[in-house]
């Protein structure tokens, strides 16, 4: 069963995507080659997609970590949250065996979520060393602010539950709207939990050199300056920031480029054969990947590889 809110909005937006005079960029001329990613990296992305998928499951299933193949490993939740006004939801957990702290943000599930999605107005975004003309999507940032306190609380609990978390990976993930909120979450972690400049002694224990931002079907979050900021702050190694897209999923094409929005790197695109392709988007969106599709299908937004996103949990 597909989420009706996803399908309705996507059907309304597809004509806008195709009607935009800048709905595809020209290749930006890189000497690099597109290639299928290594199997180890693909397996990591699949695992993190399962964490994102689990965020759609009912609260009781997530808190007990019993939601079939979506709830993998031995994750212990330190926070499950839902914001009343925005409808934004997600969880924070820790897997001591895998040495992972996980922050997963849910995609759109209700009218409140889609109200956030439709607030297209640009908003000034303040961040250390950010350009004064850095802009983000008002609705997405509002969704993040509505759950920021819950996320910070959950991370603090995860950190305090172990004696030493310096070797733990921190994974921030989400699908659709959750992917957009995940971007702000990763930036917030980098700024407030860093060993240098963290806001409390306890939070300085988190090793932000091991921070991963992996999103799925993420819409455009900000303008070009914001894209550059994300790359500068978070892209410390090639596998740290990955924006996974699939086939002809229309969601990564909104908000429109004519509204001055641009994706941050690095895109990994799942082609029709199921191959995960490393795209060339360090200097702009790659017209040979998601951005270059001629026809869009909203159904592809709800399934990446064999992982389904939506409320139908076993």
Automatic annotation (TrEMBL):
GO terms for biological process: lipid metabolic process. One of its GO terms (molecular function) is hydrolase activity. CDD domains: Lipase_3 (cd00519). Residues 1-19 form the signal peptide. Keywords: Hydrolase, Signal. The keyword Iron does not apply. InterPro entries: AB_hydrolase_fold (IPR029058), Fungal_lipase-type (IPR002921), Sec_MonoDiacylglyc_Lipase (IPR051218). It comes from Basidiobolus meristosporus CBS 931.73. This is Alpha/beta-hydrolase. Residues 102-257 form the Fungal lipase-type domain. Pfam families: Lipase_3. The keyword Cell membrane does not apply. It comes from the Eukaryota.
């Amino acid at each position: 069963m597909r989420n009706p809110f996803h399908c309705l909005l996507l059907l309304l937006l597809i004509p806008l995507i195709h009607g935009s005079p800048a709905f595809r960029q020209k290749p930006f001329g890189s000497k690099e080659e597109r290639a299928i990613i290594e199997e180890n990296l693909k397996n990591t992305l699949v695992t993190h997609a399962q964490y994102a998928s689990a965020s759609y499951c009912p609260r009781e299933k997530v808190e007990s970590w019993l939601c079939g193949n979506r709830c993998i490993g031995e994750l212990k939740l330190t926070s499950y949250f839902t914001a009343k006004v925005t409808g934004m939801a997600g969880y924070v957990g820790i897997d001591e065996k895998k040495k992972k702290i996980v922050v997963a943000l849910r995609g759109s599930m209700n009218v409140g979520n889609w109200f956030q999605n439709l607030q297209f107005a640009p908003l000034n975004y303040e961040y250390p060393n950010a350009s004064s003309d850095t802009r983000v999507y008002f609705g997405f940032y509002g969704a993040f602010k509505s759950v920021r306190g819950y996320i910070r609380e959950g991370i603090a609990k995860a950190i305090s539950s172990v004696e030493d978390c310096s070797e733990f990976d921190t994974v921030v993930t989400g699908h659709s709207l959750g992917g957009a909120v995940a971007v702000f979450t990763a930036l917030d972690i980098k700024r407030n939990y860093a060993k240098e400049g963290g806001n409390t002694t306890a939070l300085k224990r988190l090793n932000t050199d091991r921070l991963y931002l992996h999103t799925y079907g993420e819409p455009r979050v900000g303008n070009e300056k914001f894209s550059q900021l994300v790359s500068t702050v978070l892209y410390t190694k090639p596998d740290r920031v990955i924006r996974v897209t699939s086939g002809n999923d229309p969601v990564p094409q909104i908000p429109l480029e004519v509204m001055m929005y641009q994706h941050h790197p690095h895109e990994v695109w799942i082609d029709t054969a199921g191959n995960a392709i490393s795209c060339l988007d360090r200097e702009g969106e790659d017209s040979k990947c998601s951005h270059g599709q001629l026809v869009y299908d909203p159904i592809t937004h709800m399934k990446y590889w064999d992982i389904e996103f939506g409320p139908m949990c076993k």
